[in-house]
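The methods section describes the discrete structure representation at length, but only in general terms. The central task, working out the structure tokens from the amino acid sequence alone, is never made concrete. Nothing conveys this as quickly as seeing an actual entry. For illustration, here is how one protein appears when written out as sequence plus structure tokens:
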Amino acid sequence: MMPPPPPPPLPADPVHIEANIQQTAQRQEINVAMIVLNVVNTVTHVLIGAVALSAFIFANVFHGTNNLKQHIYLCVTGYVILMSQAILTFSPNNGWTNSLKYPNKKMVHWVMQVSGSILAIAGSIIRFTNLNEHMQTAHGILGLVALILTVISLIGGVVNLIFPKQTSALILRSLHACFGLLTVSVAFICLCLGFDTIYRIVMGDVNANLSIAFTVMALIGVLSSAVSNLTRRYMKR
């Protein structure tokens, strides 16, 4: 006796099909967004290195005073390398800190931020105390603004570290983040003005234009990473 044929398959629920299609589309959008953010983060690291290397090469090629070379080394290391990397520390797309837990990322951020601020403040003071007419240039004026913002950001960071669980902690963190981004922005713009003066004369127009373009693109990468990270954190609250 032959067994009865199996029952025909039930028709697929159109609601479930539509839900699965939407979930697949959302996963694809998330994957594309993650790829784009990873590429932006990688390119930003490369640009930061290129900008710093360009400034260091100029400091060795140009036969300037020792305080000018110290100013370049200290400020570029402080602002471009350490403080920029401190901002990128919290990004989930940052490769070398991606495996760290949040408390460890926070510690790395503070170490790099404090170290970068100290170097940048020292480099600015060395230049200002050895060149009075420096304050008459746009580079010098913006450098002074960056110095003041660095001090304010450093003080705000220390206050935020001492009082992490106060009622106003969210406000303090927001202000600290805004001052930090503003400080780095002013410092990068100041560096662009530096590339447009003596650097252009010594290294030529092509190198100057490339250095300025790399500086602007690096700043955009740092700011976009910071804004994306802040938006992601506040949306989870």
Q: What stands out?
A: The first helix runs from residue 14 to 61.
